[in-house]
Amino acid sequence: MSILKLFQMVFCVCLSIFIFGQQRKIISSPNNTVSVRVSVANNGEATYEVFYKDKIIIEPSSLGFSLNKPKITLQKFEVIAVDSSVFDETWKPVWGEVSSIRNHYKQLKIRLKDKNKAENLLNIIFRVFDDGVGFRYEFPKESAGQPNALKHLIVKDELTTFNLAGNHKAFWIPGDYDTNEYLYNTTKLSEIDALKAANKETDIALKSVIGVNTVQTPLMLKTSTGIYLNIHEAALINYPAMNLTLDKATFTFTSHLVPDAVGNKAYLQAPFQTPWRTIIISDKATDILASKTILNLNEPSKITDVSWIKPQKFIGMWWEMHVGKSNWFKEGNKHGANTENVKTYIDFAAKHGFDGVLVEGWNEGWEDWFGNWKENVFDFVTPYSDYNIDELTEYAKQRGVRIIMHHETSGSATNYERHFDKAYQFMQNHNMNTVKTGYVGKIIPRGEHHDSQWMVNHYQRVAEKAAEYKMMVEAHEPVHPTGLHRTFPNWLANEAARGNEFNNAPNLGLVPEHETILPFTRLMGGPMDYTPGFFHFQLNQYDASRKTRVKTTLAKQLALYVTMYSPLQMAGDFPENFNKHLDAFQFIKDVPVDWDDTKVLEAEPADYITIARKQKGKPNWFLGAITDENNRKTSISLDFLEDNATYEATIYQDADGADWQTAPELYKIEKKTVTNKSILTLKLAKGGGCAISFMKM
Length: 697
Description:
Layout: E1 10-11, E2 17-19, E3 22-28, E4 34-40, E5 46-52, E6 55-62, E7 65-69, E8 73-74, E9 77-91, E10 101-114, E11 121-129, E12 132-139, E13 152-158, E14 161-164, E15 169-172, E16 185-188, H1 194-199, E17 214-216, E18 219-222, E19 228-234, E20 242-247, E21 252-257, E22 266-269, E23 272-273, E24 276-282, H2 285-290, H3 293-296, E25 312-317, H4 319-322, H5 339-351, E26 356-359, H6 389-398, E27 402-408, H7 413-418, H8 420-429, E28 434-438, H9 453-468, E29 472-476, E30 491-494, H10 514-517, H11 554-563, E31 568-571, H12 575-578, H13 582-590, E32 595-604, E33 608-615, E34 621-627, E35 632-637, E36 647-654, E37 667-674, E38 679-684, E39 689-696
Parallel strand pairs: 25-26, 25-31, 26-27, 27-28, 28-29, 29-30
Antiparallel strand pairs: 1-9, 2-3, 3-4, 4-5, 5-6, 6-14, 7-8, 7-13, 9-10, 10-11, 11-12, 12-23, 12-24, 13-22, 14-21, 15-16, 15-18, 17-20, 18-19, 19-24, 20-21, 32-33, 33-34, 34-39, 35-38, 36-37, 36-39
Helix pairs in contact: 5-6
């Protein structure tokens, strides 16, 4: 049965069990692997615990709020009622890693009233899946029985805690209000030092580190007994992002919300539901990457007609500015976004079957954009004099390619919102359907942070306004994603982490393990515009003084198209570098950006990942395998291939002697005939990878 919805609502004050002076309710996942125990003590304290295969994962942890309006603390409760239900459906995403997703959980809704003032109501909702838990708070609307329920609230602090059951290994970045573009640290919880880690990141201009013991979500953890857990949030709407502050004495994290300009966290009007707090759990690392719980906790698409939303592959006129070949702004003869130069990118895209060309630096204002944080640097419609937008629109259209718009806001979100309609109409007039937004700079309105409630709402406003004009969006420098691409499927991707562009940043370059951590952290919330596909590794082609380099092999850059999921994939380098390796470039041409199925074959955070994916609507499969700074040999069963079918496997792999430091461009390509009975042995170089296409014969 493709779709099954089963609601079993049981109103059950009687289901609350009185044990040792407490009211307790236990709810388990459909297969009983994960369970949650919620307790309300005689003194009114509400806590929850999480168990995995009968092992405690989250020890008793607090729930509640501190409000500035009204000036109260909601942490002492009485139980009004306990409602339980079961839900089971299968739904089809507009695009994604799989063609259908099962959403199966048991729900527990606990209706509470403030022990000190009965009309202050708060509901807590738990959903328990076979691979984890989501819970959220709900401020209910007034009812006949509760005419004085809270209506308007200002949140001082959310008092949610996560009391971990040990000194786990953690994969983390420093807590920050304005950027998540850090390298990941791997330490025990007791060794977290966010200030020390952040201070090593000397060139991040906008960092606003919260404190020594505060980290960002998604937070990946591994226990000493081999259990993996991931803490994040889902459906972040009209609320600030959550960081986590650690008490090292108890290994307890407390939610730390991003404040606004005057220190408040959120302004709410009942009825209101907070984002879900999510805990994904498994004794297999592969299950963490395969989880769809965060997506399932988001609402279905708000866009009725999705026929215009298309995953795509593109090339960008951007990297040559990063490596010193060109400038974003018009100065002398180094302006990159000039008409003739962009035509070469359009020609390359058309020749190789790409959907679009991203052009950065096309519009007036770049000479004055960084560091000044002015209100109106850009108007989003005025090109430089050497960029003939009308000519390029027609040139691209004739070749079956679209220009992708770039809207850098310089942090002035209010200015961007004032120009929404004019900017998107300009895009429509020039045959564009996709925009890359950017938020480098201090946010205007002044005092707001990139991850505050105001900016969270702004990113949503962009997605909604873009949808009115049938535009697709990807955002750079935004808040971390939380699965909202289910609700707004035109919101294709985000940056929201340290991407491949940082390879050219002095003191901030990526390290080989970075790509083996990101899928367990940043990508838990949604696709990332990581910009893979670099073919030249020592970045001194146009400036001999540059010491920066890409710290992978060429074969790993190919594999990233499979392991770093996105429906919006860029070929990061520029044409002259691709033209030197067109045999390897064939994989980038072939690899899809939309999938019917995904198999996570093996994985270990900070070590290695191997993933196979089936092309949307076709029988072909693609595989990507990557490793960290260590070389690796692995045997992969091809049992995911179709029964009684034969495939031509084209294997793009590190050649003998390949090494990210000494010989990153060494690769070899071989073809084999395989079936689902075949086993392939892959050899990955240090910082290397392997990419394989399986074309059904």
